[in-house]
Amino acid sequence: MNWEQIPLGPLQTNCYVLYNHQREAVIFDPGGDAGVLERWLQDNEITPVAILLTHAHFDHIGAVDDIKRTYNVDVYLHKNEEDWLGDPEKNGSARFLGGSSITIDKANHLLSGETVLSVGSFQFTMYETPGHSPGSISFYHQESSTVFSGDALFFGGIGRTDLPGGDHQLLLNSIHEKLLQLPEDTVVACGHGPTTTIGNEMDSNPFLHGF
């Protein structure tokens, strides 16, 4: 099992492609530049089986419809952001992109709760980690010792909470009660910037000290 980090879209949001030996893949947060992502998939002979969204902000969803239609795959999203994909005000594109507002088709599957999610041959433990947004989810993939955390936790930082539905204390609670309970060698596949590990953020992330 391997994964690739591919920065896409106007904010160079990290899209992740997790793929197995059969060259099947789950795609996390295809934020834009669908052509770039499709060329990478073609060049590496990888076929997506699903799109998992950590949340529905515009910079994480820009290429969803293109990838969905090209590969005929389902989209998974937390139920608390069910109507964000089609609402430029809620997904933030109206505020940040102006005339290039983003609207996306409805998700095929709405998620909730702390559960095990099976998608094809892939299995994840799903954690609700709200705070950056109401429906933020983190997907822990034990086989690769990776958590795909979206914009909850970064290398040396945490997600912003000044957007609609953001809650700083709730985000800190999510990080401490969910993410920091994972094994310390777990790789944190962040929505922006470099990857890190749970242990590294426990030791050095200034936002998490004095909690």
Automatic annotation (TrEMBL):
Q: Where is the Metallo-beta-lactamase domain?
A: 12-192
Names of the cofactor(s): Zn(2+)
Keywords in UniProt for this one?
Hydrolase, Metal-binding, Zinc
A molecular function annotated in GO for this UniProt entry is: metal ion binding
**Keyword Metal-binding part of the UniProt annotation:** yes
Cited InterPro entries:
MBL_Glyoxalase_II, Metallo-B-lactamas, RibonucZ/Hydroxyglut_hydro
Q: Does the keyword Metal-binding apply?
A: yes
By its UniProt entry, which Pfam families does this protein fall under?
Lactamase_B (PF00753)
* Protein name, UniProt field: Glyoxylase, beta-lactamase superfamily II
Source organism of this protein record: Alteribacillus iranensis
